[in-house]
Write a structure and sequence with these properties.
Elements (H helix, E strand, L loop, with lengths): L5 E6 L2 E8 L6 E5 L5 E5 L3 E8 L21 E6 L7 E2 L6 E2 L4 H7 L8 E6 L10 H16 L4 E5 L5 H11 E3 L2 E5 L12 H12 L5 E7 L7 E5 L3 E3 L8 E3 L6 E4 L4 E4 L12 E3 L7 E5 L7 H8 L4 E6 L10 H9 L3 E6 L12 H9 L2 E2 L5 H12 L4 H7 L18
Parallel strand pairs: 6-9, 6-10, 10-12, 12-13, 20-21, 21-22, 22-23
Antiparallel strand pairs: 1-2, 1-5, 2-3, 3-4, 7-8, 11-19, 13-14, 14-17, 15-16, 17-18
Helix pairs in contact: 2-3, 3-8, 5-6
Family: Belongs to the asparaginase 1 family. GatD subfamily.
Enzyme class: ligase
Keywords: ATP-binding, Ligase, Nucleotide-binding, Protein biosynthesis, Transferase
C-alpha cells in the first residue's frame, strides 16, 4: 500500500474505507473516509486490509512564476528550518510538506511581492524541539552565504517552541549589517485561524528596514491586527497556543507592525544599518553547559552528575531574586572547586536577580556563584556556551555580566512592563 491508495479495513468494530494517509506512528494506519473525517486504526486490531484502488501520487510541482526582479525593492532571503509558516497541505492525502522555494512562498503569500524581492530555500526540516547547537551553527553559516550573495535582509522561518533559544544563539554568533528576523506560526497554514501569513508579511517587512541585529516577529495580540518586533535576546514564548504567545521580557518590543498598511512604529531605539553588508560569524560554542531548574526537595547529585560528565558551565534557574536551597550548597561548591563556571538566573520570568538582598544569595556568591542580573535563563545558557567557547574561565566570569548584544539593560526602563 502507498499513501493515496483507497483501502478497505476490517476490524471488530466494523469496516472502514478511505484514502491512506501518512502516519507519524508506525503502529497506526490512518485513512481519510468519504465523510471527510480521518480515523486512526491500531494495526493489532485489523483483521483484514485490502487495496480497493490505487491512488495517484500527489503532484506538488507547479510551473515557475518567472517573476522579474524589481530594482526598486530590497532582496530578502527566507531560510526555512521547519515549522508551519508556509507549509502546504494536500487535502486529498492529508500530507503536509514544506513550501520554501521563492515561488512557493509567493503563491502562499502573494503580498510579499509588494514588499521585497524574495529568495527562499529550506536549510533544515526539523521540529524545533529537535534543535541542536550544531544546527545554530549551520543557520549562522547559511546567513553569511546569503548576505555575501547580496541579500539585504534575512528571515528565518522557525518552529515556535525553541525559537527564542535560536534567536539568542544567532545574536551572539552573527555580526551582520543587515536585519535577521526569526518568524514562526502558532496555527498551521491550513487552519482558518492561522497566523502564518501575517507573521511572514511582518517579518519580511522588518527585514527590508535600515536596521541590524537579530529579532523575532510574532502576533502582538490574539486578533489579526498587528505584530511585534522583539529583540532576539529579550523575548520568550509565554503561552503554549495563543497567537500572541511571544512577549518581550524586562523590556518592551522594538516595534509595532501593521501588516495591512505596512507601517512600522518603533517603540524604542534600534541599531541602524550602515548599508555595508558586512557579515562575520563566530560559531565556537562550548556545548557542555547545563541549565538546571531549582525546585523544593531537589537532589544536588544532579549538579555533581554534570560536573563528573565534564561540563564546563552550569546555569542555575533560581527562585526569587536568585536563590537555591542550602542543602545543595556543597554540591554547588563541588562544581566551582573543579573549575565549572556557575551562574544564577531567576525562574520568575519578569524581574531581576539580586543576590545581595538575602543571606542565601550572599552565601551563594561567597561560594563563587555569579548572579546574572538581567538575563532570561535561555539567554544566559547560550551566552555561557558562547563565552566558554571563546574565552578562558576567568575572562568568562568577567564578561558574563557585560552587555554584548543588548541582552542586559543596566538601567531598566521596563521593569513595570
Amino acid at each position: 500500500m502507498e499513501v493515496g491508495d483507497i483501502v478497505k479495513i476490517e476490524t471488530d468494530k466494523g469496516i472502514f474505507e478511505g484514502i491512506l494517509l501518512p502516519s507519524i506512528d508506525e503502529n497506526i494506519i490512518t485513512i481519510k473516509m468519504k465523510n471527510g473525517y480521518n480515523v486512526g486504526i491500531l494495526k493489532e486490531n485489523i483483521k483484514n486490509i485490502e487495496v480497493i484502488a490505487k491512488g495517484e501520487k500527489p503532484k506538488y510541482e507547479l510551473p515557475p512564476l518567472n517573476i522579474k526582479k524589481n530594482e526598486n525593492l530590497k532582496t530578502v532571503s527566507i531560510l526555512s528550518t521547519g515549522g508551519t509558516v508556509a507549509s502546504k497541505v494536500d487535502y486529498k492525502t492529508g500530507a503536509v510538506h514544506p513550501s520554501f522555494t521563492a515561488d512557493d512562498l509567493i503563491r502562499a503569500v502573494p503580498e510579499l511581492l509588494d514588499i521585497a524581492n524574495i529568495k527562499g530555500r529550506a536549510i533544515l526540516n526539523i521540529l524545533s524541539e529537535n534543535m541542536k547547537p550544531e544546527y545554530w551553527k549551520k543557520i549562522a553559516e547559511e546567513i553569511k552565504k546569503e548576505v555575501k550573495d547580496g541579500a539585504d535582509g534575512i528571515v528565518i522561518a522557525h518552529g515556535t517552541d525553541t525559537m527564542s533559544y535560536t534567536a539568542a544563539a544567532l545574536s551572539f554568533m552573527v555580526k551582520a549589517d543587515v536585519p535577521i528576523v526569526l518568524v514562526g506560526a502558532q496555527r498551521s497554514s491550513d487552519r482558518p485561524s492561522s497566523d502564518a501569513s501575517l507573521n511572514l508579511i511582518s517579518a519580511v517587512l522588518s527585514a527590508t528596514k535600515n536596521i541590524k541585529g537579530v529579532y523575532v516577529v510574532m502576533h502582538g495580540e490574539s486578533g489579526d491586527t498587528f505584530c511585534y518586533l522583539h529583540k532576539g535576546v529579550k523575548v520568550r514564548k509565554c503561552h503554549s497556543s495563543r497567537r500572541d504567545a511571544f512577549k518581550s521580557i524586562n523590556s518592551i518590543p522594538i516595534a509595532k507592525i501593521n501588516p495591512f498598511t505596512k507601517e512600522i512604529t518603533y517603540l524604542q531605539e534600534v541599531e541602524k544599518s550602515e548599508n555595508t553588508k558586512n557579515v562575520e560569524i563566530n560559531t565556537n560554542l562550548e556545548e557542555k553547559v547545563a541549565l538546571i531548574k531549582i525546585y523544593p526537595g531537589m537532589d544536588g547529585d544532579i549538579i555533581r552528575f554534570y560536573v563528573d560528565k565534564g561540563y564546563k558551565g552550569i546555569v542555575l534557574e533560581g527562585t526569587g531574586l536568585g536563590h537555591a536551597p542550602e542543602y545543595i550548597f556543597e554540591d554547588i561548591k563541588y562544581a566551582i572547586d573543579r573549575g565549572v563556571v556557575v551562574i544564577m538566573t531567576t525562574q520568575t520570568i519578569n524581574g531581576r536577580v539580586n543576590m545581595n538582598v538575602y543571606s542565601n544569595g550572599r552565601e551563594l556568591q561567597k561560594l563563587g556563584v555569579i548572579g546574572c542580573e538581567d538575563m532570561l535563563p535561555e539567554v544566559a545558557l547560550v551566552k555561557l556556551m558562547y563565552l566558554l567557547g571563546n574565552y578562558e574561565p576567568e575572562e568568562v566570569k568577567r564578561l558574563i555580566n557585560k552587555n554584548l548584544v543588548g541582552e542586559i539593560e543596566y538601567r531598566s526602563r521596563f521593569d513595570a512592563y
